[in-house]
């Protein structure tokens, strides 16, 4: 099966997994941690994310037509590789399972008030199951089409929100004495930036993927950072810092607060935002599920692919029902964020150093 992807498709896959549920509570989290200087926190987080994006892209580019399973075995041996794979599998599994449950909760509370959460979880998993079963090329096309839609509509929505905001709510823009506060607040906004690790399960092809891939991936992360800053600043401009921290679904709360008469039948922006948000969730879920299934298949080669699909999705549905309250889900989300830091920082750094020490980058030229 031909699984080669273009540079543009890989960049949109990166966008698809990073921009998802995390955009909903982001304004609240940023405002709590850094106040009106949150844009600076997001800028630093974006720069850090770009650095790790370059590193993970470099590993895939040097070890052509290999995923982390193959090049990790070459660099650090089978034992460490198995440990790494278990960590990645657990992370991807928890990632899409918790997002399924959390998203179902939000949809139930905002749109389908009388629909049981387990029904929404099952519906999400069925749709995701079908998409993942079609393979990575189909997933890439979905992310390419949906990603463009998400970018366009997010820009329209956030600019529209800005027209209803007050510039005074954004002041002070930056306080030099609060730099330590801005930097420490990065730890509170980890989740919206995790997802770069999906690049470790996508083999880069010698013919299809050139050095432009580095530029594409860096630009897409920079765009994500810009969108995040736009989201946070637009929400604060309408609600103010003291107002925005009261809402867990801060972006949706802001959108529902405004009414734009000149947009006529589009004056209620939540009618536009919710479908776009669900589309972004769909991209995130299929990619995280793909990562979990792909690496499980690599680690347990004796199992048939269909059995792996069935086991993972069944387990995901069961695990998604375990948390009793939204607070329990949020705690699991925090733990998953910390696990995300491990799979995107220490492990790639180790493999990057091993690649340099063993001079595999020179051998691949």
UniProtKB/TrEMBL annotation:
GO terms for cellular component: membrane. The chain crosses the membrane at residues 9-27, 39-62, 83-103, 115-132, 144-161, 181-202, 214-241, 272-296, 308-326, 338-355. Its main location: membrane. Belongs to the amino acid-polyamine-organocation (APC) superfamily. Spore germination protein (SGP) (TC 2.A.3.9) family. InterPro entries: Spore_GerAB. Pfam families: Spore_permease. It is found in: Membrane. It is a multi-pass membrane protein. Keywords: Germination, Membrane, Transmembrane, Transmembrane helix, Transport. GO terms for biological process: spore germination. This is Spore germination protein. NCBIfam families: 2A0309.
């Amino acid at each position: 099966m031909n699984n080669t992807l273009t540079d543009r498709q890989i960049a949109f896959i990166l966008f698809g997994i990073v921009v998802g549920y995390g955009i909903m509570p982001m304004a609240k989290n940023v405002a709590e941690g850094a106040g009106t200087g949150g844009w600076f926190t997001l800028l630093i987080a974006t720069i850090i994310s770009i650095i790790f994006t370059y590193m993970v892209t470099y590993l895939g580019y040097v070890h052509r037509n290999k995923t982390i399973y193959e090049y990790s075995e070459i660099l650090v041996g089978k034992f460490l590789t198995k440990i790494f794979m278990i960590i990645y599998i657990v992370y991807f599994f928890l990632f899409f399972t918790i997002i399924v449950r959390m998203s179902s909760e939000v949809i139930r509370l905002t749109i389908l008030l009388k629909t049981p959460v387990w029904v929404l979880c099952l519906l999400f998993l069925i749709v995701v199951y079908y998409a993942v079963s079609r393979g990575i090329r189909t997933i890439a096309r979905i992310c390419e089409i949906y990603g463009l839609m998400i970018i366009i509509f997010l820009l329209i929505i956030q600019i529209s929100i800005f027209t209803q905001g007050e510039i005074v709510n954004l002041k002070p823009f930056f306080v030099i004495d609060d730099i330590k506060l801005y930097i420490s607040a990065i730890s509170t906004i980890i989740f919206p930036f995790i997802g770069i690790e999906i690049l470790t399960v996508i083999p880069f092809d010698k013919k299809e993927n050139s050095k432009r891939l580095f530029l594409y991936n860096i630009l897409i992360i920079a765009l994500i950072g810009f969108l995040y800053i736009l989201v946070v600043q637009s929400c604060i401009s309408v609600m103010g810092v003291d107002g925005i921290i009261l809402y867990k679904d801060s972006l949706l709360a802001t959108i529902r607060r405004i009414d734009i008469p000149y947009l006529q039948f589009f004056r209620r922006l939540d009618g536009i935002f919710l479908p776009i948000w669900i589309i972004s969730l769909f991209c995130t879920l299929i990619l995280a599920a793909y990562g979990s299934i792909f690496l499980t298949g690599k680690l347990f080669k004796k199992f048939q692919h269909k059995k792996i699909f069935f086991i993972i999705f069944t387990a995901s549905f069961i695990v998604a029902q375990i948390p009793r309250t939204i607070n329990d889900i949020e705690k699991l989300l925090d733990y998953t964020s910390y696990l995300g830091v491990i799979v995107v920082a220490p492990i790639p750094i180790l493999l990057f150093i091993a690649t340099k020490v063993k001079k595999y980058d020179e051998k691949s030229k």
